Amino acid sequence: MRIEREIKLDFEDVLIRPKRSTLYSRKLVDLTRTFKFKFSQTSWTGIPIIAANMDTIGTFEMAEVLSKNQMLTAIHKFYDTGDWINALKSGVNSEYISITAGIDSLLQIKDLIEHLTKNKQKIPKFICLDVANGYTEKFLDTVKAVRETFTNPIIAGNVVTGEMTEALILAGADIVKVGIGPGSVCTTRIVTGVGYPQLSAILECSDAAHGLGGHVISDGGCKYPGDISKAFGAGADFVMLGGMFAGHLESGGELFEKDGIKYKRFYGMSSDTAMERHYGEIESYRASEGKTVTVPYKGKVENTLRHILGGLRSAATYVGARTIKEIPKCTTFILKSRK
Ligand code: 5GP
């Protein structure tokens, strides 16, 4: 047993120090960024915020709105090929979406791409390989196999340490998804004792990834727009959101009313609710690592987007960053006491 004594930080442990700046208006901040990837020969331009591949968040309805705002949606893996074809025909823009698959991914992705090609539909831009624990040899083999077969930018995760970020990139991932335990409906830290404070995870993983020409996504733990600024400040290239996109018209989950107030249900992808819904039962050897919550109904996600992007623009002007890419080099974090 070993103890690492360096203190690791969460979003709530820091604030961003304001700096003198020549930016006199938030209008001067450009939130779009163009990415070139380590392996995939394509490039992508957009606002690097991603709706999480959860079945209540990564919906086609969400993608329709987010894509109009040049943001990404990681479409959840429970749609069938018919759903995909309908969505693409009805105008969901493949440039701003990602396919999601788990550990035995290759066939699932091949099958979907073949179907879309046969139906003359554009192939989604990104492939997201998502597992709760990105530390297994089997997962590295999956990333290698998908890399050998497809030319799309590959997202792989989740991990929280530099050495595994490097391993995933060397296996063929263009972008590593970072976060174990910070999610709003995640109970991994409580159930298993495993996790890593998210701000430190981003700092360490982005350093490792950037050294190899890769990118990282900060996944989980953003409760407020300010947390998104902190994630970019720490070196995240993209930020993935679940809870902040929950409870909207475009989110999945049933809408119900109690005492005249509207709510939607939101649950973790390894919660009992999700497992019962998608697999019919909870396998006896596993414990649920997610919870189910009710969130007040928030209406159209467009309003939330405005709030998020406004916060981000404002943060950029406070530190003098003209673009999202400049935010980390303009960021100094200050430690604060937790109240
Ligand atoms: P949020 O933005 O809600 O804080 O975090 C979203 C992220 O939480 C997702 O992208 C995913 O990585 C993670 N997540 C979603 N469902 C679960 C779950 O049931 N258990 C765990 N451990 N993490 C989850």
Would you give an account of this structure?
- This protein is of the alpha/beta class and 339 residues long.
- It has a single domain (11-335), classed as Aldolase class I (TIM Barrel, Alpha-Beta Barrel), CATH 3.20.20.
- 33% of the residues lie in helices and 19% in strands.
- It is built from 11 helices and 15 strands.
- The strands form 4 sheets. It has an 8-stranded parallel beta barrel, surrounded by 6 helices. Strands 12-13-14 form a 3-stranded antiparallel beta sheet.
- The longest helix is centred in the C-terminal third of the chain and has 19 residues, at 301-319.
- The protein is globular.
- The model has no long low-confidence stretch (mean pLDDT 96).
- Bound molecules: guanosine-5'-monophosphate (5GP).
Features:
single chain, globular, 339 residues, eight-stranded parallel beta barrel, TIM Barrel, alpha/beta, 11 helices, three-stranded antiparallel β-sheet, binds guanosine-5'-monophosphate
